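Supplementary Methods S3. Input chains for the assembly prediction are listed below.
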Amino acid sequence: MSRAGSTAALAAVTVALGAVAAALPWLGVSSYVRTLVYYACYYMALGQAWNLISGMTGYVSFAHGALAGIGAYATVIALNAQWPVAAGLAAGAAAAGLASLVIGATSLRLRGAAFTFATLFFQELVLLIVRKLPAAGGPGGLVLQEIYPTSLPYVLMVVLAAVATIAVAALRFSRTGVRVLAIKHDETAAVAIGIDSTRLKVAIFCASAAIAGLVGSIHAIFVGSLFPDVVFAVEISLIALAVPLIGGVGTAMGPVVGALLYVGMREVFQVVAPGLHLTIVGLLILAVVLFMRDGIVGAAARAWATRRRTAVPAEGG
Amino acid sequence: MALVEARAIEKRFSGVVAVKDVDLLVAEGELLGLFGPNGAGKTTMFNIIAGAVRPTAGAVRFRGVDITAVPAFRRARMGIGRTFQVVRPFRGLTVMENLMAAVPSAAARDGRPADLAALLRGVGLEKRANDPAAALTLGMLKRLEVARALALSPQLLLLDEPLAGLSDRECADMLQFVATVRRSITIVMVEHNVHLALPICDRAVVMDAGSIIAEGTPGEIRKNPAVIRAYLGEDAA
Amino acid sequence: MSLTLFFQLLANGLVVGGLLGIVALGLALIFGVMRVVNFAHGEFITLGAYATYLLVTQLGASPLFGIPLALALGGAIGWLIQAGVIARVTERPELDMLMTTYALSVVGLGAFAAGFGGDFRSYSAGPSGSLDLAGVVVGWRSLTVLLTCLVMGAATLLLVQRARVGLGLRALAQNRDAAASCGINVIASERLAFSAAVALAAAAGALVSLIGTTTPTVGHGWVLDGFVVVMLGGLGSVAGALVAAFGIGFVQSFASYLLDDSWARIIIYLLLYAAILVRPHGLLGRQEHA
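Predicted structure tokens for the full assembly:
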């Protein structure tokens, strides 16, 4: 199948699944299942945002949770100021996008770990500053004044997860996507064939941050209240990278598989080992990096390729 | 007007002078060989033209435009393509994607962009178009890298040690390929193996200890006593 | 501000600076020899702090014994983690390396939180009383911390710059392949460097438990400041790192008094962003040139 063909097929499947998932609240499915679907989409969208910058360029972000948090705060502040929902969501995406420019414009001019450090400190800095800001409610946080039906954030999150997945797939097989991957593989060589790596990295990071901001915005509507220590917890940045890493970095399907697995795992661990959630996710990341570098999707693809090669030995010759 | 005009180039690396007061002109359409023993400064000179190294003093002009401070990616878009001494393919991308990543130069965008499939045929990699670059042999990777540089539709092609690491057979293939390409493009080639590379050059420049010691046609270079001394040391002096 | 208060804050800054110097020394040792950014360094600090806390509260020993205990424990665990995990990724792409130490950090963070809960833990055993120097009161605990840091720092520097093993480490920092071809045992040297750096971090943790409270995230805050020191001071010069360590120590001490702890940290992290702008190729960016 051609590339455009497989992207289109993936898009169709994603849209169909998304439509079914979005319709669940009206199909009489239990609220437990709906919550699971919601969280799967939440992790999927956040994972795709991380995948876009870190999976595609190789520049690791430890701050996607903080970017989502900025989106959440911007949206709640805007909605409490009586902005319409669409404007409130746009404010969330824009705030996170702007924040990404602050980190990216300085550190993405450089190669190596500078960007990762900038994100690591950003994660800490945002929490410290938000706790100091009266407009953000200080340490006590903010409450969303108007109550929205849960179906609103639910549908929005499903749509966002689907759109983000299709966007990553479309980018992966576009010329721009090939150039972004070229930066990941060898930045010096990429520059030598005319790729403006700094601009491309900053642009991709900004798009990635805007998606993360939207994830935070929608989730803020879902939970209704923001506490800085919860919104800016390291865990959320960890999930943002764990989900694509488990599924497969740099592929559109990776975060989808990763999010589904992660939601299932979280349910099990909450019963079996409620206190060890962080440790288990850490060990899982370690295991994937050490022994299964391209995640589950990559490992499955390789197994499939090996099977086909052994099944049709004449091919290629 | 020369295609490339480098004037009074000097480059120091933390005190050590790698290139001192070098003038280098590349005429449109020629194949210029840049030779010299290890540490002669030829690679530094090459990188200064490619934009990977900034000279300490002096200026580089390309088609009359001062490009001394122009970053490497923009030089590529202006029409300067290059290869690397140690190959740098995008190993996780397919062979075709390696070519797709190149941003066509300004001239190519206005006219017609490079035909990537034809480029792959030209380097004999058309059957490997959808294989990851990681699966290729060194000889193939070196040809892929030339094709990737050509995907820019450059006016100037910079070849950094195109024969290094290749078998005799692969060297012959590469030289033949370069001979085909030279008909349409100006080429500057840095090469360690003077013996094999000199015959296909229109003109050669020999550097030693950061300066140019000889310049001329392959025939003149071969007979130049300074060149013989630089390559063979005191025995020949 | 009275002069006495000024000297008091200066003394506090010296203690913080000494600890930061030890933490930064370990980070620089690991990065210099292996090109690995050790995000898990803070968890080794926490490890030393809890080990000392347990030693004091469970066995009734003096916290001073916590220092050798932490050194030994850190050295052993560092050796095992280098052999079992870090050695597998040193030759891999940067993304893998960053993920590995980040994951190790998360594992540690989670384990401490699960094992000890979020309580603030401290003990009163150990050196007590204080030294009064013309109105500037310096507790014996703080003095113990500062002196131990100075001794450990000097010993490590002597080892790296004078001893034969140190020569191997410095050669390795220059060029891995060249060092190997000169007969330097690259694997053993890397293991030694990591193990020594972790031992230092754990010992710093033992000292941290002496002058403050121990929580699952105690090391995390210290290591972030340690990164700032390494980036401001640079890897190349010991003097630069010392100036940066004590400089950050003073900023911390004065800003904490004049504003509060959070502002002190905000200022230090903003300094880091300035450092990325001003000396981009210090520790972080390696400008690549053919």
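Chain B has a mean pLDDT of 89. Chain B has ten helices and ten strands.
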